[in-house]
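Researcher: Please predict.
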Amino acid sequence: MFIQVQINEEGALRNQRHAFSDRFTLVSELLQNARRAGARHIELNHDAAKQLLVVRDNGCGIIDFQTLLSFHESGWGVAVREEERPFGIGFSKCLYAASRCIVTSGDRRVDIDTAQALDKASFEVVTLGAHEAILGTQIELQGVDLPELPTRIENLCLGFPVEVLFNGKPLQRRLAQANLPMMETPMGTVYLTGADDGLYNHHTIVFLQGFCVMRPIHFRVDQVNVVHLDPMQFMARLPDRDKLIDEDLQRPRIEATLKACWRITLASAKAVMPASQFVDMYYSAMRSWGHLDLLNDLDILPSEVCSQITSYPIQSPGNSIDYVERVEFFPTRQAVEDGLLTLVVLDWLNDENATRWMFARAQGYLLVEALGLHPEHWAQAHFRYLEDEAIEVEAVAEQHRTQLEGRWIWPTVLLCGAIKLQMGQDAVVITDDGLFHQGCLYIPRDEPSGKSVRQASAFMNEHDQFLESDLESDRDALAQLIRLLRCVDSVQTLSSLLEHLQLGRYPKLHGKRFQLEVGQGGEPGYSLELIG
């Protein structure tokens, strides 16, 4: 007994209608056929109410009408078959999408009842008179249901290479090769968004033979990379041809080509632009596309990798560090090598490195993001990794030591005249801000507030919820404790209380003298008299 492959023609014809997943592939197939026929102009006229679609082109026309009803036989010449490898199923979509197809090409016409065609009926190709003959080909589809075509046609033809008129209006085809400055590559042509201004994007839309085979879920037409693949190297999957064969293998290849195109673009810009302009415009693109080594021989640093500590460092919910700002200048190699600028690397502020943040702030160091530069960049040799350096904390003129019984934190509170921080041969003295170190809040003489609790904790619970009320309670408790500990005599006690009130903000009090007598307990607890 022998067996061999056989085809159930009736079943194949009946079930082929279910192979296409998108009804609009009908339009793309007709456009594709017109393009392959050498058309330079295609007209689509659609009447949704009448369920009528007419496609007309100025191509070379149909040589053999039998190819219209020959499944999996393209009928194209050798050049088209070798270059584009057509599958020969394009027109068959019409048989399933319409009730009637009238095809006119040159001086010949055939009128096809699609139901009869699928029952393998024959249809006569008639010869027209000279007054009825046309240039190119016209396909009229009746009983075709494409209600959303007017809203989808522009997107369908985004990258199509041939001029298309829809109901008399030209489509923009904004991503067609002729409408963009494309780069030639081994796999096809590429347009890089951001090549002119550095506003790069990794969103990429890929076309094969003018139709999309790969796209991001969301993208803007004016902010997307465009790739038109070489049809000799790539094939799309049957039957809709909207996905690449082996897409998982081709996607990294496309990404690698985009990266190579960025390399060429960046190298060209670097050769003609001043260093500061080049870095300012293209640093983000260099970093994102893996070309940071282009910075290695430039004598300036990108401002994006350098920051200044501009206000009091605290632990923040979600690591939002609004006390750090990017520098507005380009640090130079000369300034770094001469010691005028010190580049330091610091982890996010936590309850173990607050002293290092305070030291860097007092010294005016620049925070630098080491990963934002190539490993062989000249600046790497000048980085100080403060986390790796020992730091000594000394309370100068210690006054009091006690414990804060807060709602969320219970640190030791140490009042002193000043705080001395020393790293190696470098030392700073702080008198106006508290800091947290090894479970202790150091409070120098000019610090009346309770803000340093925010160095001790981010006030986040195990569910990543910000405990704002606990923060306010502990901050107020620390401020009150500081005032009480500083009450060593009556004048200092009252002065501390008045300083907290910021009385200078009230104009009616300016220049006035008062006599105050303090009683015991709460309200009223005092008597006040204006003198003079």
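Model: DSSP finds 13 helices and 25 strands in the chain.
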